[in-house]
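Problem 3 from the worked examples.
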Amino acid sequence: MAVEFVPFLDLLSDIVDNRGRTCPTSESGVPLIATNCIRNDLLYPAYDKVRYVSLRTYETWFRGHPRPGDLIFVTKGTPGRVCMAPDPVDFCIAQDMVAVRADPDRIHPRYLFAALRSPEVQAEIERMHVGTLIPHFKKGDFDKLLLPLPDEASQAFIGDVYFLISSKIELNRHMSRTLEDIAGAIFKSWFVDFDPVRAKAAGRQPPGLAPHIVDLFPDSFEESELGEIPRGWIIRPIGDVVQVLGGGTPSTKEPAYWESGIHPFCTPKDMSSLESPVLLETERHLTDDGVAKVSSGQLPVGTVLLSSRAPIGYLAVTETGVSVNQGIIAMVCDQELPNLYTLFWTEANMERIIARANGSTFLEISKRNFRPIPALVPSRPILHHFSSITEPVYRRIVANVREARILADVRDTLLPKLISGELPVPDAERIVERCL
């Protein structure tokens, strides 16, 4: 397959560029996408910490807006990150990124997306960065970035395969978020709002619950240090009902702790980009000698992790044995509380956790300050039924996350081989059919 190289700029029909002024924001309105919303592992932009603009600002301030299928391309901070604009486009973009529109007479639009994501083009963009503190990729250099351009049929196949696999990954993520919301809603109803208890206290049948589960809930309340709680449930320090452990980082100057390591070593960075609270793998690994240097050793599968500083609040459940660094509080749930209850309890009590943090440079919650935090402990039968309902939901989330990881690996392995012509299209078709 012959491949020519064509300047990026020559493949575009339009560029939406709103650089030059700071966009006025408001408390609500149209979401304003920032560069942190654009990631190369997502198909569409995420809505992470978005700001908003008023409808008037949306209609009058901007030079232009993205259309469905445009590519949102970051030019400052993390140059080269690119996502596709969905249909409909329900956001606007300001500085530090542009929306680029493929010229369909020159390039297959989805192929342009795939080509920009390819390792070779990403590396070339990085080589073309300017700026020492904050990297830039100047729009004026778009004509210097050469993109590989195979024949039209190959472009269509590569672009469609890349989009198809990315769409499946996006669907899995959406399903996982929905399932997580379902499990979280059950926790909130039972253990925060106490809906079944309130219904029974009022002489009503709690909706949606089988009679044998309803019978497990009390029908009245009593006072506690946390306020009104269901009668018979107790308050215990979280450190008394789960094992609260910390970690540490073995010397990075000692090769014996790191070289050829096979044991996952988790830091808050590993938790920061999780789409669901499922930890499958980590960036770094320890040797046996390295694990021995961590006070908590290797933690078991099912451990609940909380980032304890910079920032406080990332959460995950381990699906592999891990060691953790000093920026994580680990909760081993082998005592009174199951791990999914502990996960949702931690999320629900985040304000209380942060209130116990201290530090001058950044807030940190120590194990000493974390262990006394009061936790509500329902009866064992209720906890058992909560686990029996939510555990299958969580296992489905884990399966979705694993499948998304496999699909991403297949997609990212196929892409450079297809663009270069190393992998024939028929072979790629068979691989994709087996995956999907």
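Problem 4, a separate protein:
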Amino acid sequence: MERIYAFTDESGAFGWDLDNLNVSTHFIISSIIVKESDLQSLRDDVELLRQKHFQTGEIKSTHIGKNDNRRQRVLADFLSLPFSVFSVVFDKKQIMHMPGLHYKPSFYKFLNNIVHKELRRAFKILTIVADEIGGSEYMKSFSNYVSERQDIPSLLGEAEFFFENSHNDVLIQLADLVCGTLARIYDDHLKSDNSYKFKKLLDRKIIRVEIYPKTYESYTVDGSALSENYDKDIAELCLKQAIEFIKKHENDEEPERNAQVIILNYLLFRFMNNDLRKYIPTRELMNQLTSTDLADISVQSFRTRIIGNLRDNGVIISSSPKGYKIPSKQAELYDFINHGTSIIIPMLERLKKCRDLVKLNSLNQLDLFDHTEYSTLKKYFDE
């Protein structure tokens, strides 16, 4: 399994005077995710773009500031390169009522626990590269946190953590650009009128943006990213079933169950943030498992062990030849039915033809469905 590198930076800071325009309303940690085989070529290409857009300076979101047109041009160039984005966004407004987090060590520990868990869930073999210890109080705390919790398997090289000065690594600088752009999308004091444009640009690079506290419960389909012709009752039912599964199994470490949670989180992320994308191709979903124990799962196994098992557990997932999605309207439920019947009906017809031929040739002495295990099929055909 190929090693994955996560070049990590943060935006925001500790502080609870959220009415103060100088205090961030959100704390954002973003990682630029790169395959080891792409590492050197990506670094070379990013360096060329750094020279183009920042001349002798570092790639920094603050160097662009509120110049949204420039930000879009810069992002468009960088987003053509081979990397992905994994981010965790903490909404401080939603957790400020928790008095224990008003102390900096407790706040950092809360963040560290979640970021570490999400990264380890998503990536099996991971090296995290972050800014120099002296440059970030939060990253120093994260380093200490990870060091104290390195698993025994990490002795075999499954996980590493080290710091590197952003001045010397353009990929950490790229993480700064992405983090700062996400702040322009989420932070109340920095949010841009063009945030939707930034979202659209970043969309094709984002593996997942985890919002904390989890927004599933507070999410409403009214005024959401759903297309205008959604069916409220269907959308809410499908959302509810998916959330219940995640709540029940989010701490399950069994590889197959963990993979189901990852896939469902991705489907929900798309449902809640970009329904207009419609169906998500099977291969795109399978790519979410690239760095897990199920990295080499076949398409057929993915359909049965992941999607099929989710459906067996009451999660409603629509499918079509174009892929899968959490449905939000009747038409998408009928897509699932039509897609299923196009497979099931011909198969049933073949079974019926086989049974009838055997019965005919045996003068009705042999019915293949007389065995107990086929009683359901026998009942279906007879009735």
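Solution to problem 4. The beta strands are 4-11, 26-35, 84-91, 126-130, 159-163, 206-212, 318-320, 323-325. The chain has 14 helices and eight strands.
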